[in-house]
Amino acid sequence: MRSISRLGQDCIHMQMPQDEGKDGHEKMMDRYITIKAYRGKLLLYIILQFLKSGLLLLPPYCYLLFLNEVITGKRLTWLWGIVALYVAVFAAKAFVSVLMKRTYDRIFPVMGLEARNRVLEKYSTLDIETLSGYTAGELKERLHKDTENAVLYWEKKIGLWTMAISVPVMVGILLYLNWILAAVSFLLLPLSFYVTRSIKGKSNVEYERRRKILGQYNDFMIHNMFFWKEVKSNCQEERQQQQFEGLWKELGDAFLRSHIFWFLNRTFLAFKDVFLTKMGLYLLGGILVIQEMATVPALLAFMEYYADFVNRLLEIADIYMQQGAQEASVKRLKEIMSLQSPDREYRLGHFESVVFRDIGFSYEADQGNVLQNYNIEIRQGETVAIVGESGCGKSTLIKLMAGCIVPGEGEILWNGVPMERINRQDIYKRAGFLMQESTLFNLTIRENLLFGKADAGEEELRSACVRANIMDFIQTLDQGWETVIGENGIKLSGGQKQRLLIARLLLQDTELIVFDEATSALDYQNESEILELLLQEKGTGKTFVMVTHRGTSVARCSKVIALQ
What we know:
Layout: H1 21-29, H2 39-55, H3 58-72, H4 77-105, H5 108-125, H6 128-131, H7 136-177, H8 179-187, H9 189-226, H10 228-233, H11 237-290, H12 296-337, E1 353-361, E2 371-379, E3 383-387, H13 394-402, E4 409-414, E5 417-418, H14 424-430, E6 431-434, H15 445-449, H16 458-467, H17 471-476, H18 494-508, E7 512-516, H19 524-535, E8 543-547, H20 551-555, E9 559-562
Parallel strand pairs: 3-8, 3-9, 6-7, 7-8
Antiparallel strand pairs: 1-2, 1-4, 4-5
């Protein structure tokens, strides 16, 4: 069985689109990053990159002037001019660096936020059947890590463009200073690129392995948070602990291996270019000086430029090593943005009934069904209580009704039409669900309520809060509606969170209202008052379904469904 929050080993692997190459990646960017909107700022950032790269060439030149004119030529009057040039270069570098940081902050963080918003919007247009090819951990990785890598793809590409011009300039400078030393140092470069390319392939394999394990780990954690009751009622705590330890060990091993390859490449390049080659060049340079084929100032300036040259090559190698992961992220985002939900032609009218016909469902393929051969009918205007022992499938039944999970057997009919044929947005316009896992955000009370109805006015907000019995509490707060409640309402008590969630649901004004133990944190008096207010609306044709353990709530319902 599959669900958005738990697919695990039995997830459907959807076919990857054909790789269209780098041009295809860049064309695809506009689906989650509007590159054209950043053209001016990107151009400024590139210009600043080139300015900074050019300024880095001046300190070794100042050093050469110092050696030639002050030390060798004994022209002390040049000293103040050289010092002034040093200070001017330092000040210019600092100024350009500040401009680059400000420009960077106006481009890449905003691009990252836009990319996440685009992917999140795409998720909201897809339904469970389409998303069921991915675990929750996979979806989380695409939303966070892959969008981050996609933005890095552009940032590092700009860096490569800068290097593509600065490195030839450095080659020209080295050849000018001493062509023999330059030629010897260049002969060893192919070895560096060959080793980097070889290590990159192995690093990409390990990165993909780590990403997949991280997705499995995230999915495992999400599953345990959402289905902790089922885990506990089925005595699976020990098994889950073993899975957690196994995943954590695999994740740590994959993380270590992926970083080992990066360090191997860095260590090899540093040892060869910084130590062996540099020492060899000093030795050769010394011989050339003795043979009067080079001067000491030229040799020392050459080595300064060579050190800068090596640093740029190391930076190129680092970017090249990281590019594989970034391109893979772009490809995965391309896959997600290309997904299309099934075309469901049926438009649901007013709510009439929902029928469960021969429903069977299990969370694990190797375990028995949580629900088996269930036949239930809920009709318009009824007040239905769903009761039963913990772990018998009450919450599972509600998740099936909401489309959060899909049945392994049987079918669910809305107004006599199979659920898979109905436009999902139509169902959510007619039915409002308050799950045990419903979330509040680290926003104000008003902003949290407006998730129920974005254009709700002051009077609508007040009415919903009065009906949910939380208006008196809001009025006691210094900032009232503008009070920030913390992540998932951490600043509120359990009962206050539930009443706020109920108020948000009431703002939707749906024909069917479904509570999955939505009043469990309330005392009997508060629960009774809320239910009384809700039941007063039966005359308007509304239908109520509630999962509850309390006899007082059951007694108020016109129909009771007992799960075994």
